[in-house]
Design brief:
β16 and β17 (about 405) form a beta hairpin. The strands form 6 sheets. Strands 7-8-6-9-10-5-11 form a 7-stranded parallel β-sheet, with helices on both faces. It has a 6-stranded parallel β-sheet with strand order 12-22-21-13-20-19, sandwiched between helices. α2 crosses α3 (about 90-95), α17 runs parallel beside α18 (about 540-550) and α18 (about 540-550) packs antiparallel against α19 (about 550-565). Helices cover about 30% and strands about 20% of the residues. The chain has about 650 residues and is of the alpha/beta class. The chain has 21 helices and 26 strands. The relative contact order is 0.09.
Length: about 650
């Protein structure tokens, strides 16, 4: 029996009275019960039935059998996740359990529905399954397939092909997307559960659709697993343990022998690593294997004939992928006349004064610390790490690495630099005068009573709906604006360099994700939508990939960079922080396998533990006793 107390991560033995054992809820592995512990009645989960009885111990009795819980194979999956992310078993069983009492589960249907070939919803004639969709499912079952398709492409063919394999689990990053896809499946006559809301129904449904928590749905043995937008940060828990639903779904597919597909507009290095590790003989993919990986398109015979590849990496036809991207324009700020101002170049000025609905993204509310050459406009970046440098007096400084050099431009040798200062509020005030129309600010959480999260104008406080009625709207905000505005004709990134040079190892991936979100806001190329990127780094792989609607070169560069710098997924990381962190790191340093760990810190109260393999890192973390006090262990955190 495991009690629902994360601080007590151990099992206890209890006795189940006969009257409870014969109740309506069967007592089996995963059943939720109430047990006495320390004078209190605490929720717990059955983790074993009829274990060896401890000698000379009077066992306490279970007080109540409360509810059906996660099935045994999900309980074991939770045990694995507790090891994988250095967390507690109870934390994952909480996520895998229903939020209400479940007295019983529905029986499985006697016959699965017949899934027609994929085609347009509501159409009278269903088209045959496209070859590129078949290629995504033609890989060896041991290795997850990685599928690349444009941001505005329809995922329906991939989902229906998964359903033709059998019982399917489909994960998406947002609740709205999950609800939309579940409704579409039900309309097509497929028995569908929306997890975690339809927790009990997931046990018998043909298709289970959910967000992050959907990875723990109580389905039976799966035949297919699909993770759409596998790169999305929404799949990872921000709180420790920092588990990722994509990785849980891949492990679940492996245990069930199910086919697994990781799909999205920008295959992440993590997805490539997972596919390499699952298909190879080792437990992980080496840096050299990651670096030598090259994708196969649907035109490659290996992708269409089912010949073994490592990993299976399919793409939609080039024409379809390109049409699923809007037009992306690059505004090189180095070429703008300095008189145009700090934040607005000539291309953006023309866009703001057009009669289109425009969304402007600026990911800062106050002052930024970037600096650029006043002569040639080149951004001041570190020659070692590539991160943007701060201008402090007459020096350029990298606060993370400690690099300091004179304020001299690497491109032209000039010594005058300008700081980028203006945030959303300041830009909104200037933008309203420049565009000669109202500007709606969207920053942070939605305002009270505002369902779409729009905020007040910089000069007046008219209701946002009234402003939209007056003509095409003009929005300015942090990246939250991409989630609050339903659609737009154009999206402009006012200062994209701030995303590209952020001091995080996933900065490029996060910047690309913003472009993907913007692409879905404006729609595909045929609809006339467009994205404008203002940058002083026009040759950056992320910018080039978006402009050409082809993230392949970016992925190659990103994989190689992380391999050379020993960053996830080429290496295993853990960040340790909290009041008890110093004591924990001291104990960790005494571990027999501590020589396999690279312990750095503290920096701002945080230690970074790095290892070549997860086995070495997680083994040492699991063996180290945790001292009393607040302690946070984040394994492979996304923002580091």
């Amino acid at each position: 029996m495991l009690v629902d107390e994360p601080a007590i991560d151990r099992e206890f033995t209890y006795v189940v009275p006969d009257e409870l054992a014969s109740g309506r809820v069967p007592v089996e592995v995963g059943t939720v019960v109430r047990v006495p512990l320390g004078g209190r009645s605490i929720r717990g989960w059955v983790t074993d039935v009829d274990p060896p009885r401890p000698a000379g111990v009077d066992l306490l009795a279970v007080k109540r059998v409360s509810s059906v819980g996660p099935p045994p194979h999900v309980v074991e999956l939770a045990r694995w996740a507790a090891w994988r992310w250095a967390g507690t078993w109870a934390h994952f069983l909480r996520t895998a359990s229903a939020d209400r009492v479940v007295a019983g589960l529905p029986s499985e249907p006697a016959q699965w529905p017949v899934i027609a070939p994929s085609g347009p919803p509501g159409g009278t004639a269903q088209a045959a399954t496209p070859d590129w969709v078949s290629a995504a499912w033609a890989s060896d079952q041991r290795s997850p397939a990685v599928m690349r398709l444009g941001p505005c492409a329809d995922e329906w063919p991939l989902v229906t092909e998964a359903l033709r394999q059998g019982r399917s689990l489909v994960l998406v990053p947002t609740v709205a997307w999950a609800a939309r896809l579940a409704g579409r499946l039900r309309h097509a006559g497929v028995s569908t559960a929306l997890a975690p809301r339809d927790w009990a129904g997931a046990a018998s449904a043909h298709a289970v659709v959910g967000t992050r928590a959907g990875a723990w749905a109580p389905c039976g043995r799966l035949d297919a697993v699909v993770v759409l937008d596998e790169h999305d940060e929404a799949y990872q828990s921000e709180a420790a343990p920092t588990w990722n639903a994509r990785d849980v779904a891949v492990e679940r597919a492996r245990r069930d022998g199910a086919r697994c597909l990781l799909a999205g507009p920008m295959p992440s290095p993590d997805a490539v690593h997972i596919a390499l590790a699952a298909g190879g003989s080792g437990a992980r993919a080496t840096s050299s294997a990651l670096s030598s990986m090259s994708p196969t398109s649907s035109s490659d015979p290996a992708a269409t004939t089912g010949a073994p590849t490592m990993p299976a990496f399919a793409t939609a036809p080039r024409s379809l992928e390109r049409q699923a991207w809007p037009r992306v324009g690059i505004a090189d700020r180095r070429r703008d006349d300095p008189a145009t101002g700090e934040w607005c170049g000539e291309a953006l000025t023309e866009l703001l004064r057009s009669d289109r609905t425009v969304v402007c993204v600026l990911n800062r509310k106050g002052r930024a610390r970037l600096a650029y050459c006043a002569s040639c406009g080149d951004l001041a970046c570190s020659t070692e790490s590539g991160r943007a440098l701060r201008l402090e007096g007459h020096q350029l400084v990298d606060p993370h690495s400690g690099e300091v050099r004179p304020a001299v431009c690497e491109a032209c040798g000039a010594t005058r630099f300008r700081r980028v200062r203006v945030g959303v509020k300041g830009v909104a005030e200037e933008m309203e005068r420049l565009a000669r129309r109202p500007v709606i600010q969207v920053v942070g959480e939605p305002a009270a009573g505002a369902a779409d999260g729009t905020a007040h104008s910089s000069s007046r406080r008219e209701h946002a709906g009234r402003r939209r009625a007056e003509g095409p709207a003009l929005y300015i905000g942090t990246e939250a604006v991409l989630h609050r505005v339903p659609s737009a004709d154009a999206v402009a990134f006012v200062d994209f360099d701030q995303e590209l040079t952020a001091p995080r190892y996933r900065a490029g991936e996060e910047a690309f994700a913003l472009l993907v979100r913007a692409a879905r806001l404006v729609g595909p190329r045929a609809g006339g939508g467009s994205i404008l990127v203002q940058t002083r780094l026009p040759a950056h792989p992320v910018v080039a990939a978006a402009a050409t609607a082809d993230p392949g070169a970016w992925l190659d560069a990103e994989v190689q960079r992380r391999s050379l710098m020993h960053q996830p997924p080429a290496a295993a990381w853990a960040l340790v922080s909290g009041a008890a962190a110093a004591g924990f790191v001291e104990l960790l340093s005494a571990d027999p396998d501590a020589s396999a760990l690279d312990i750095a810190g503290p920096a701002d109260g945080t230690w970074r533990i790095r290892s070549e393999t997860h086995q070495a890192l997680l083994g040492a973390l699991g063996r180290t006793e945790r001292p009393s006090g607040r302690l946070r262990v984040a394994v492979d955190p996304m923002r580091a």
